[in-house]
Automatic annotation (TrEMBL):
It comes from Roseimaritima multifibrata. CDD domains: BtuF (cd01144). This is Corrinoid ABC transporter substrate-binding protein. Pfam families: Peripla_BP_2 (PF01497). Residues 2-289 form the Fe/B12 periplasmic-binding domain. InterPro entries: ABC_transptr_periplasmic_BD, Vitamin_B12-ABC_binding.
Amino acid sequence: MRIVSLLPSATEMVCALGLRQSLVGVTHECDFPADVRKLPAVTRSLLPADASSSEIDTLVREQVQTSNALYSLDTETIQDVQPDLIITQALCDVCAVAESEVNAAIRTLPKPPQVLNLEPRNLADVLDCLRVIGIATGTELQANRVLSQLENRIAAVVQRSEKIQHKPRTMVLEWIDPPFSAGHWNPELVELAGGVEVVGVAGQRSVTVEWKKVVEADPEVLVIACCGFDIERSKEDLPILQRSAGWQNLRCVKDQRVHIVDGSSYFNRPGPRLVDSLEILASLIHPDPTGSSKP
């Protein structure tokens, strides 16, 4: 089977199923496992490489209004690699190639490939995507083994969290300029890790929030997981928050419980490493495994 993945998360799932050698094309953002970077990139970003967070937000909002894509598909490369299976998504309009462009590329192929559209909205959906790919690729047994391992790790975090009485008010911030609350699976991860997400809503899209709402929520723990940004890139935007009214008075700031994490590799990539994200959250929300810390 010849597989093209149009999602970094799907690329990770395909590799977790032992199908690395079946991958013939990936996105320009696929970077894990590391050797997938050697594969032909079938997409490219139309965002300026030096765009600020505010400029990226403006471009994304314009995309929503005009239906102009932020990613383009290299149809010639798709034709060269001749995939049997294309894995894409229809969940987020700005996170991947437009569905219409994928369909247009398929029409140029002599043999139409199977297309899997993944649309996870919560942790269970993410795990189910792995199962769906396993069925499509004939690797159901391996999918079940991987799922069992992931579910055991989730259960271990939940078991630990259930023993802790105090559930810190927590906010996962998915963008800084402007502020975006956590969406989809991230509020759920907070709950499983033993916290209470004070702004984001599980299963819903990430949305812009007024800064004063963050101040009013006064989280005890703030986790900054900017979508598409690694830790170093997110740190560049931290001064924007530090200049915001009320920043110094936040409980999380006073208690030095503001954490910057890799939102690109983990929290906003709905693949196997979402379980790593859960484990990271658990260690940040409850660094004392005995749960003896006082609120």
